[in-house]
Design a protein that fits this description.
two-stranded antiparallel sheet, 5-stranded mixed beta sheet, alpha+beta, Heat Shock Protein 90, about 30% strand
């Protein structure tokens, strides 16, 4: 879908390894929900950015688009089940209004949070924060610190 819309996707990942205690399948789902939304609501030829970093014991993953503003009045409701803010984001993109509710549930299930911000003419961003399990350990220390599965 991103290629069809000629979107430029870029990332800025930290050089520091950050580990969180998480179930990979739901976290993958959360990231797919966010990436799908920003690709869906970013106008053709614009940029999509993602970022991952460690902020004082919290791993933060941010996904930001360069279009698709969300009205301030909608920001308080967009994580509610079945809530649709498409009027402010271009409408007609389908969906049942469950994606962001599921994303919030997954973040909270992992002891984290998810928030959204939006500015007219700038775009929208979604920030997921998860508690850090291990950060900045040498490979041999990481291997011994992580529990065997």
């Amino acid at each position: 879908m991103a290629a069809e819309k000629d979107l430029r996707i870029s990332g800025n990942l930290s050089d520091v390894s950050v580990f969180v205690r998480a179930d990979a399948i739901p976290i993958d789902r959360l990231l797919l929900i966010l990436l799908d939304d920003v690709v869906k609501y970013t106008p053709r030829g614009r940029a999509v950015r993602n970022l991952s970093l460690n902020r004082g014991g919290v791993a933060e993953i941010s996904v930001r688009d360069s279009g698709g503003d969300i009205a301030e009045s909608d920001l308080v409701n967009i994580f509610d089940r079945f809530y649709r803010a498409d009027r402010a984001r271009g409408g007609g993109n389908g969906g049942a209004g469950l994606g962001l509710a599921i994303a919030r549930w997954i973040a909270e299930m992992h002891g984290g949070t998810i928030v959204a911000e939006s500015a007219v003419g700038v775009g929208s961003a979604f920030h997921v924060q998860l508690p850090v399990l291990i950060a900045s350990l040498a490979q041999e220390d990481r291997d011994s610190a992580l529990p065997a599965l």
